[in-house]
Amino acid sequence: MDELRIKRILENIKNNKITIEKALEYLKHLPFEDLSFAKVDHHRNIRQGIPEVIFAEGKNPDEVVVIAKSIYKKNKKFLITRGSEKIYSRLKIKEAIFHPASKAISAGGEKDKKGYILILSAGTSDIPVAEEALVTAEFLGNKVEHVYDVGVAGIHRLFHIKESLNSARAIIVVAGMEGALPSVVGGLTDKPIIAVPTSVGYGTNLGGLTPLFAMLNSCVPGIAVMNIDNGFGAGCLAHKINKPK
Fold this sequence. Notes:
Elements: H1 3-14, H2 20-27, E1 33-34, E2 39-40, H3 44-48, E3 54-55, H4 61-75, E4 78-81, H5 85-91, E5 97-99, E6 104-107, E7 114-121, H6 127-139, E8 142-147, H7 162-167, E9 170-175, H8 181-186, E10 193-197, H9 209-216, E11 223-225, H10 231-242
Parallel strand pairs: 3-4, 7-8, 7-9, 9-10, 10-11
Antiparallel strand pairs: 1-2, 4-6, 5-6
Helix pairs in contact: 1-2, 4-5, 6-10
């Protein structure tokens, strides 16, 4: 439940459109709903500006479905990250969409897209993480553009999108291998850069540690670095940067 819906409930009580008992029914799961195996935080969006999102990896698919339906019942929207087609097929919610590249599952989300977030991936192999960031940012209500496969081995490809680099409010840069792309992009624009290292690469990529260290040690000031493969976190941070006051 978001702040707007609570205001409407209170206004309806004031105008005698609903009873106090009906309002209590709407609000009875404040601040959370106990499902025994999970405590669903329906009001997180009010506190943090981002609703509770379901991380499916490591959970029983049936648990994910129950949590998603609980959130959907109260908010008419949900986002699942690291999902699967099995979970999607068990949801049986008409509005739900499965995003194959990121394996995210979304339903609803903000319709009015605001601002401008640009997402870049160094290589095609980095697209799943970039797509997780994209699905997250769009779900939260951001206008998002993506440009993939513009890594430093063909640096000239970046020069074709200079206008996009300079007009974005935030830029998410996803890279594996040696993780050089965020530093290069940071040297071309004054926009906030959110760097996401991926576990894509040969042996000394070390499961993403090499690009992580490269991004943390960038000589370009003002680069924020996410955890390895954390497209979701990048989408959330970009949303908070992009969100109008």
